[in-house]
Write a structure and sequence with these properties.
Blueprint: E1 5-19, H1 26-34, E2 40-54, E3 58-62, H2 69-77, E4 84-89, E5 93-96, H3 109-119, H4 124-138, H5 153-164, E6 171-175, H6 183-198, E7 202-206, H7 210-216, E8 219-224, E9 227-233, H8 234-244
Parallel strand pairs: 3-7, 3-8, 5-6, 6-7
Antiparallel strand pairs: 1-2, 1-4, 8-9
Helix pairs in contact: 3-4, 3-5, 4-5
Bound molecules: adenosine-5'-triphosphate (ATP).
Residues 16, 18, 45, 63, 65-71 line the site of adenosine-5'-triphosphate.
GO molecular function: ABC-type transporter activity; ATP binding; ATP hydrolysis activity
InterPro entries: AAA+_ATPase, ABC_transporter-like_ATP-bd, ABC_transporter-like_CS, ABC_transpr_TagH-like, Bact_Polysacc_Export_ATP-bd, P-loop_NTPase
Pfam families: ABC_tran (PF00005)
């Protein structure tokens, strides 16, 4: 169906309570809390954000640091609940948000493929079937029996990306993960995302790399201080955004 809405974000706002003081540790925080000496301030990270994502499109979220992009993606992924408003999604979502969040550093790369893959919802059979593909994509053939605590951050990210992207989700959420790894690996990641796109996935993409945003996205939602600044064509808004920076 043409222009089928697959993600509908309606009047989303989210409030965080920020402590007005900083504490050196939990003990100090606890004492001050018991003494009722802590005051809290409301901070609205997103205010009244609405937009729609159409099936098969790649939509980019842009905005300066702290404008609310990651928070918006986490709400769409279901990791956070909005204080007000609603998000409706249809289909399977693969969130590439905090890569390797479920990894156990004492386990080997191979053990982590099965641990993390299971956490991401893949069955053991599916993981066994795709194991070689994961190893090949991450280019870590010689390191699969090494505990991941000995991995460099690039090696770690390569493995985490390879595991997280073996499926074909309906909605792929990509938050800054293309900045991981070296240039060669970034290109491989971009190609894999493009393949998912060709296979019909709808993609929500956050990056500070405007070239990547232009390459992958057709439409943009530009956030400013947690509000929608504008929504429109990727080339046009990327140009305007870069000129405003
Ligand atoms: N769990 C939280 N508790 C308190 N404040 C938070 C929390 N998560 C995010 N924030 C605040 O919400 C605002 C938006 O953060 P967010 O990470 O969504 O921004 P962003 O646009 O993704 O930034 P960046 O480009 O730096 O990744 C920031 O001011 C951040 O400090």
């Amino acid at each position: 169906m043409e222009n089928e809405v697959i993600v509908k974000v309606e009047n989303v706002s989210i409030k965080f309570c920020l402590a007005s003081e900083k504490f050196d540790g939990f003990k100090e925080y606890f004492i001050q809390r018991v003494k009722k000496k802590i005051t809290y301030q409301d901070f609205w990270a997103l205010q009244d954000v609405s937009f729609e994502v159409y099936k098969g499109e790649t939509l980019g979220l842009i905005g300066v640091n702290g404008s609310g992009k990651s928070t918006m993606l986490k709400i769409i992924a279901g990791v956070m609940k909005p204080t007000r408003g609603s998000v409706k999604t249809s289909g399977v979502i693969a969130p590439l948000i905090e890569l390797g969040a479920g990894f156990d550093f004492d386990l080997t790369a191979k053990e982590n493929v099965f641990l993390n893959g299971t956490l991401l919802g893949y069955t053991r059979e599916y993981l066994e079937e795709h194991y070689e593909e994961i190893v090949e994509f991450s280019e870590l053939e010689q390191f699969m029996d090494v505990p991941v605590k000995n991995f460099s951050s690039g090696m770690f990210s390569r493995l985490a990306f390879a595991v997280a992207t073996i499926g074909q989700p309906d909605i792929l959420i990509v938050d800054e993960v293309l900045s991981v790894g070296d240039f060669h690996f970034q290109q491989k990641c971009e190609a894999r995302i493009n393949r998912m796109k060709e296979n019909g996935a709808t993609i929500l993409f956050v990056s500070h790399n405007m070239e990547q945003v232009r390459n992958l996205c057709s439409r943009i939602v530009w956030l400013e201080h947690g509000r929608v600044h504008s929504i429109g064509d990727a080339d046009e808004l990327c140009r305007e955004y870069q000129e405003a920076e």
